[in-house]
Structure formats: structure tokens, C-alpha cells
Amino acid sequence: MSNWWKKAVVYQIYPRSFKDSNGDGYGDLNGIIEKLDYLKKLGIDVIWISPVYESPQDDNGYDISDYRKIYEKFGTNADMENLIEEAHNRDIKIVMDLVANHTSDEHFWFEESKKSKDNPYSNYYFWLDPKADGSEPNNWGSSFCGSAWEYSKERNQYYLHYYTKKQPDLNWENPKVRQEVYDLMKFWMDKGVDGWRMDVIASISKYTDFPDYPERPGEKYIKGFMHANGPRLHEYLKEMNREVLSKYDCMTVGEAPGSDSENARLFVDPERKELNMIITFEHMNIDRIPNSPNKKWALKDFDLIELKRILSNWQTKLLNYGWNALYFENHDQPRIISRWGNDTNYRKECAKAFATILHGMQGTPYIYQGEEIGMVNAHYKLKEYDDVEIHNAYKELVEKDKSISEEDFMAAVWNKSRDNGRTPMQWDSSENAGFTTGNPWIKVNPRYTEINVAEELEDENSIFYYYQKLIKLRHEEEILTEGSFKLYLTEDPSLYVYEREFKGEKWLVVGNFSEEEIEIDSLKPYFYEKWESVINNYGEVRDNMPLRPYEAFIIKKIK
Ligand code: NOJ
């Protein structure tokens, strides 16, 4: 099998927000086809497309009711086949989202399963008896607040759901369930799909004795280490690899909450024949207070030293033992420049600085739709948000528990909520940003007249063209894919500096993540005597001059 994904750059599409081709306010597959030439111009190699299957959309498609059918608002199966073909015609690969930790409660398997304790689907999910007092089997919490168990009268039992109660967890202990998953993977791969992004794959194996978590103050239901990395996880991944993945020249990236750079190798060491790379959360969690009852809404200041420590750890631990997935944004994360940078007076410089640091590392870089034009967070009223995560958290934490004030909660929503990344793609300055001629399912970010694709394509110094250049470097320069990694200035709170080295060649990657000018002194020892600029975000790299706000560049040593 070739390792084509090592030189690839992935672009993630969140279909409902990308491009609407028929005016119903939802993005769709034909909309994606319309924009393939735009993506080709950017230069990406792979599109990862978030779930497009039949779904009641309780969690925007991460609740699937038919894995073999395209959701009608997105189009038809024929449209999907057409998209695969059109992408392939342009040498772009298609990776689909495999959501197999759970299904929708409207999936046929669940509808059957809940009918009785002894039907052919009864063990497709986790069903447990209530405790003697009728309460939930244990104190496990859902990721979206509340208990992870929902009572069902028909069976007089509780079923497990790590996400909403409309997303029951599949029982991977049951070999029939595993076979169903492998079959649906083959169904799409035989149609030409080139790989999988695997939703919360680290959670598919459960601790089937379902022990309680140790109590935590202020929390009735807890979500913690037992929600991931269960005892049979790697056995299942090996089986999936044997049964399906090894038969195709494909790419796999598993979403692995709860993983760190130590256990990452278990997933991605090629010798183990499991996955190619995993999506970690370690670096994304640095701005949250750990173990707070207010979960991700308990904000902590951004800390560059911590970010550098975590990402560098992954770089060094996986060098020669696996492969990194490099990302700052996706449909579950806010816009990085609003979250950790400056999205007003240094918006462009800042977007390019984050891109430089990320794309300079070893791994496969992921660009989330809109990141390449510097899209920013939304600042809406509560009722203008759509995400079930926001509304569940509001009810539970603000209204019921009163563990966070309304004011602090809204500040966290503006900073961290998933809908920040889910507002419609901004194509131009026409009404609704050129996303739809109808009513968009969620409000367009009002800054679309200033931030949009049409503007970016007009300006040769745009963020778009900067990404285009970074992608080209990834394709052409082996040092980016193969080179070693060394972090400098580990304790510097503003400067991100590291070096890549390959076959005697050396590149220095530098970013100033502050709004201040920074004297060059601390950086000087690492500057090469003779060098040339590979890429930079201020039009030139200056020797012996202070670094400007959000200045970033890569320089190359000349012998
Ligand atoms: C992770 C997905 O990325 C997220 O959007 C979803 O809500 C959960 N998994 C549940 O499927």
C-alpha cells in the first residue's frame, strides 16, 4: 500500500454550510461539486466530508438512520457517486465520515432492538436494568450534559448514549454489529471512497462491567477516562483493518478523545496495522479548566507555552512510529484566530501565522472550510444558535445547576461553541454571502462583506494564496514530510520557534504570537548565518530587526 496521505493536505467540508445549490438554505452535494474547481485551485488533495447520510439531524448528521442512503437535503446516492467521480477527475480524493460508535435512535436496528429483550437486534446496543430504586445503572454522563443512560419503557431498561439520547451507542461486543459496520464501509469504498475519518472511534470498546466513576464535587453524571480506550479497542481496530482497510489503498484518521502522545502509537504505529493517524484533543483542551462541572464552558487563558509543549511532544513521540493529523479547526471547534489570536486588526497576519506553525510540522495538515480565508467566530444571541450542545448545556448548567452565570456562559459560547465553525461559507459579498439564495439554516456571519472568497481571490497577498503556497511546499519539499523536529525557546510566552532537518537541509519556522514587537535577541542564536525565506506573512523577512505582531516565516539555511 502506498502512503499517499503523507504528502496530502486534507480539506474538511461541513456539507450543510458549504454551498447550497437549490435554494433550500442547506448546503448540498451539488454545491460541493460546483466548488471543486475552487478547491483544486487551493491545491488540496483530499476532501473529508462530514456525514451526508440519512439522519434526523439531531446532531447534524452524526446521528445516522441509514448508512447506505444520502440525506435528501444533501442530494441522492447518484449525486454522491457523481461527486466521487468529479473529484477523482480532478485528482482529489474523498474521505467519508464513519460514525459507528452510535447510530440514530431512528435507525432500523435500534427500532427493533428496543422492542424486546429477545429479538435479533436486542444486543446491537447496550441495555442495562435499572438499579433497585429505578435509577440509571451508573453515574456515567453524556458529552452533551445529563446522564448517558435513557430509560425505555418497552424493555424496562436503560440504553447507553455517550451523546444525545437520540444517539444510542452500538454494542461492538456483538460480532454481528462489527460485521454490519465492515459491510457498510465496503459499500462506500466499492463506490470509490478513498478512506475514512472515524468519529469517536476511541470510544467503541466499553468497560462492560460499567463501574461508577469516583464522585466529583458538583457533578451528578461524569464523563471521563472510561468513555474512551476501552479494553477491546485495539482488537477491534485490528479486525477492521484486516477485514476492510487492508483491502483498499485508503487513508484513515480516527477521532481519539482521551488519547495522548503516549497511547497514540497504539493506533498509528504502522507495524500494528490499525489506523494511519488520529485526531487528538490534547492541544485543543488547553483553554479549559480541567474537571470543571462547567465542562468546556469553563474557560482558561490561552497559553502558548502549553500549546508548544503538547504539539512538540506529539512531533517527537511519533517521529518514526506513526503519523500526526495536524489541525486547529474543524466543525467541533471555533475559529482559531478568534479563539487564540486576533480576528480584527491583525486578522490576516494572525491567520497566516497559525497556518505557518501548523503546516511546518510533520503530519497531514487539515484545513477546515473557511480557515483558508480567515473566517471568524460568530457573536449571536442564544436563540440564534442551532447546536444541541449549546442548548443542552444552557438548560443544565445555567438554568438547572446554576453553576455558571448566563453572562459567563454566553462569553464561553462566543469563544468556544461549535456553531462558530458552522456558519455558512462566505463566498462573496452578495446576500447570504453567496451561500444560498434561500434562508440559511443558521445565520451568516455579518462580517461576510469584508471576509469572503471573492475578495481573497482578488488579492495576491491573501490568506488563500498563502495556504496555496503552503500546500505546494508540502507537495514539493521532503523536509516537511520527512524532516526531524526540534523546538526552541520552549519557555517563551510569545515566540513559537522550531527547526526541521532532513539530509543536511535545515529550515527554521518562526511565529510571533503576540500583538507586540519582539526584539530579535532571543531568536538570534537560531538564525542561520546565510538564509533565504521560504514563506513569510509580511512580504519579507528582516534580519536583526524586531519581529512584528503575528509575524511568521520559514527560512532555509544556505550553505
Ligand atoms: C464527534 C463529532 O465530530 C461531533 O460533531 C459529534 O457531535 C460527536 N462526535 C458525536 O458523533
From TrEMBL:
The keyword Electron transport does not apply. CDD domains: AmyAc_SI_OligoGlu_DGase. SMART domains: Aamy. GO terms for molecular function: alpha-amylase activity; oligo-1,6-glucosidase activity. GO terms for cellular component: cytoplasm. Pfam families: Alpha-amylase (PF00128). InterPro entries: GH (IPR017853), GH13_cat_dom (IPR006047), Glyco_hydro_b (IPR013780), O16G_dom_2 (IPR045857). Its main location: cytoplasm. Transmembrane segments: none annotated. It is found in: Cytoplasm. Keywords: Cytoplasm, Glycosidase, Hydrolase. One of its GO terms (biological process) is oligosaccharide catabolic process. Belongs to the glycosyl hydrolase 13 family. This is Oligo-1,6-glucosidase. It comes from Clostridium pasteurianum DSM 525 = ATCC 6013. The gene is malL2.
